[in-house]
Amino acid sequence: MQRLYIATEKFDPSHGTGWQEYVEWSGLAQLTEVVTLDGMLCPFALPETKESYWPHIVTEDNMLNFFVDLDFLLSELADTRDLNILGVIRRPSVDVRSLAWDGFVFLGYDLMDKDVGNSTLSNCGGFPEAFVNSELSSVGLIPNFERAIEIQQTLRRTYYPPEHHADCDLWAIFRRQEGWAPAPRRSACE
């Protein structure tokens, strides 16, 4: 499973009216923040692909905002205080909740449409035959792998087609812990 990185803007109550309108529209009253790969809710911190990015990004359709090199991504960001630095795994085949990923903490699973444009969980208005809003965590994700797979299968079986957002991929979402730094390396002489 390939580990990827992306920087997104935070979306939480500090957005005032925009946040209040979103919570009212979505019915997700339990949210304290939205953490997603959905660029409409959480815009990408580096929306423009520079020439220097090519060796460090995923070069697939709809994936140019995903980096394979965390250090490079961080070097391109002037200030990370209002950003989520996410570590993600696309289409995990097993539960990765307990995966050891230095500096990152597991937040949950998102279901993104095939264009990696919209979160089926937090930005499609709900799919009541697949899941209920109360199943989403305080950041808008599904905490349980088996349940996320079940929702994904139900979405495809029940809503696709005609609803193209129901044809979605599973993503494991981890967030970089603020202030985390790797342990200093010891020299071979110590």
How can the largest sheet be summarized? 4 strands, antiparallel
Number of strands: 4
pLDDT averaged over residues: 94
| Shape verdict | globular
How far apart are the first and last residues' alpha carbons, in Å?
35 Å
Strand order of the largest sheet: 1-2-4-3
Oligomer: single chain
- From the alpha-carbon coordinates, what is the Rg to the nearest angstrom? 17 Å
Broad structural category: alpha+beta
Helical stretch tally: 3
Low-confidence stretches: none
One letter per element, helices H and strands E, the order comes to EHHEEHE
**Count of the separate structural domains:** 1
Level of helix content?
Answer: 10-25%
β-strand amount: 15-25%
List the helices and strands and how they pair.
Elements: E1 4-9, H1 17-26, H2 70-75, E2 83-90, E3 104-113, H3 145-159, E4 168-176
Antiparallel strand pairs: 1-2, 2-4, 3-4
Question: Would you give an account of this structure?
Answer:
The chain has helices at 17-26, 70-75, 145-159, and strands spanning 4-9, 83-90, 104-113, 168-176. It has 190 residues and is an alpha+beta fold. It has one domain.
